[in-house]
């Protein structure tokens, strides 16, 4: 392949990754529109994952890529998708509902620093500056985003956003250490399927599964599923394959920027100058965390896992994204899968 062909392929990888990040970044805005129709968080997430699972499984079936799973693989995917991924998504979408898309998206990006710390603890190694530093930087940004505690502060919403970052980091660390011998696409399909089951059970048990919303809610749920889940994850896979997971993860940090701008333009939301500065600091810590994780992965033992992550991470180890994606996806140091799935 000549230089021109390589340049064109790399350019396509950059475009695919940025479009993926844009789709993930718009997800909390689409969710806000869905909430405006009277749709609950649980109902939206059940619809999102049901549609996404159906699309992924149908595509894999047409391509003849559905494989028979072992008992251990079923158990692993049930834990990751039905348990940890479900928890992360529920916390993140609850935060979006309570505090808005912009703060929720920025706070989610605490996860790369947390992944560094949790990975060091799991490997029983003494955390060095490249492990602790990204977390401290992100926490410093967090204080600016949250600002001074006031009576109007939605503490539960802030805690949900922080909890989503912690849950996503745990999901990535565990998923990257549990190899299912499945491709990211297959893993993402089954994770979505198990997440659907969990949200249906949760909704029926708590009464949160309510279909009494306006008809427009279905359109917004489908948009979240098709644009901000299926399309976003697929394009992240393209970008990560072309550029590598580290570069794709760094470009994916365009996601919270999209979330902040879209919330401002479409929802009338706003952040103070201090909060915007805090968001930039959080992203700087996230970038440091991604690069540090890549350095550690380069010297660690091979074959340490390929489970996708979402909403990201979101594809190289997820973004969280903001919607937590496959574990081998957008998570730093994970294999290749999305943050916001």
Automatic annotation (TrEMBL):
InterPro entries: AA-Vitamin_Transporters, EamA_dom, EmrE-like. The keyword Nucleus does not apply. The keyword Transmembrane helix applies. Residues 12-146, 156-287 form the EamA domain. It is found in: Membrane. Keywords: Membrane, Transmembrane, Transmembrane helix. It is a multi-pass membrane protein. Residues 332-341 have a biased composition (Gly residues). Its main location: membrane. Residues 322-331 have a biased composition (Low complexity). The chain crosses the membrane at residues 12-35, 41-62, 74-96, 102-122, 129-149, 155-174, 186-205, 217-238, 250-267, 273-291. Residues 301-341 are annotated as: Disordered. Belongs to the EamA transporter family. This is EamA domain-containing protein. It comes from Streptosporangium fragile.
């Amino acid at each position: 392949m000549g230089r021109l062909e390589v340049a064109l392929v790399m350019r396509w990888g950059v475009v695919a990754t940025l479009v993926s990040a844009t789709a993930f970044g718009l997800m909390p805005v689409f969710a806000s529109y869905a909430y405006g129709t009277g749709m609950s968080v649980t109902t939206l997430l059940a619809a999102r994952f049901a549609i996404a699972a159906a699309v992924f499984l149908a595509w894999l079936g047409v391509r003849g890529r559905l494989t028979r799973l072992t008992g251990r693989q079923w158990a692993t995917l049930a834990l990751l998708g039905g348990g940890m991924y479900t928890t992360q998504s529920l916390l993140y979408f609850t935060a979006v509902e309570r505090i808005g898309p912009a703060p929720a998206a920025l706070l989610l990006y605490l996860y790369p620093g947390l992944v560094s710390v949790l990975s060091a603890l799991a490997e029983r190694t003494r955390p060095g500056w490249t492990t602790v530093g990204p977390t401290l930087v992100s926490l410093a940004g967090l204080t600016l985003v949250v600002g001074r505690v006031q009576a109007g502060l939605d503490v539960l919403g802030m805690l949900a956003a922080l909890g989503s970052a912690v849950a996503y980091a745990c999901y990535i660390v565990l998923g990257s250490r549990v190899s299912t011998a499945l491709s990211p696409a297959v893993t993402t399909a089954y994770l979505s399927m198990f997440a659907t089951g969990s949200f249906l059970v949760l909704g029926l048990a708590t009464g949160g599964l309510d279909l009494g919303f306006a008809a427009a809610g279905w359109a917004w749920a489908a948009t979240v599923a098709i644009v901000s889940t299926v399309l976003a994850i697929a394009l992240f896979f393209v970008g990560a394959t072309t550029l590598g997971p580290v570069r794709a993860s760094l470009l994916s940090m365009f996601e919270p920027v999209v979330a902040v701008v879209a919330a401002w333009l479409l929802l009338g939301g706003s952040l103070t100058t201090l909060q915007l500065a805090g968001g930039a600091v959080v992203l700087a810590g996230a970038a440091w965390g991604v690069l540090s994780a890549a350095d550690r992965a380069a010297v660690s033992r091979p074959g340490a896992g390929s489970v996708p992550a979402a909403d990201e991470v979101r594809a190289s180890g997820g973004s969280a994204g903001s919607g937590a994606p496959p574990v081998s996806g957008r998570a730093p140091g994970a294999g290749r899968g999305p943050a916001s799935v």
